[in-house]
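Changelog-linked ticket: pyridoxal-5'-phosphate example.
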Amino acid sequence: MVSKKRTDEEIKRVYQEGQRLFGENRVQDLLLKKDRLPADIQWHLIGTLQRNKVKYIAPFISMIQSVDDLPLWQEIHRQAIKANRVIPCLLQIKIAREESKEGFDREELHRQLAEGHWRQWNGVSVHGLMGMASLTPDQEQWRHEFRTLRTEFDYLRETHFKGPEFSVLSMGMSADYEIAIEEGANLVRIGSAVFAS
Ligand SMILES: *Cc1c(COP(=O)(O)O)cnc(C)c1O
């Protein structure tokens, strides 16, 4: 469940229905909510992460879904080692048309993976990929972009991430999760569709 911008009361209501996995897109909000809400919640970071903020979440974060460049990946590794843990992460891939959307460019990622520096960063365990489709009403465009991410996921699993932990394909939000699931998502990030009801 994506709990960004939701009050503690809203989150507690969903928590009481059994939900334990929540995603936030800002470190500041996440830290405040974590202190106020039950300790058995698993927090995922789903938004842009600045390198200098990794240290605040490294001790407890369940997963960082938004690793979008190499320096961030390395910093997560460093802070994970300091915190004496391994942090599950997803690589965020740019599939949308908008310039503004974050994520690795696929060709550049392939080049960087081939260089291999990341292989030493054992504080990070890469569990899969995350992507966001374009802001468009065009459902076929969404489908095309999700399919691109699925293809990328299969490719990386065959080439660089052969371990069983590489298993998560996070795509789909309230508007487009049905198409995302049809195209192979096994983690969806739903906010407004749950909290609005
Ligand atoms: C806000 C957000 C979502 C959820 O969006 P809804 O439309 O509220 O379901 C999913 N992923 C990311 C990265 C977000 O920032």
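Closing comment: Example verified and attached. The mean pLDDT is 96. The chain is about 40% helix and 15% strand.
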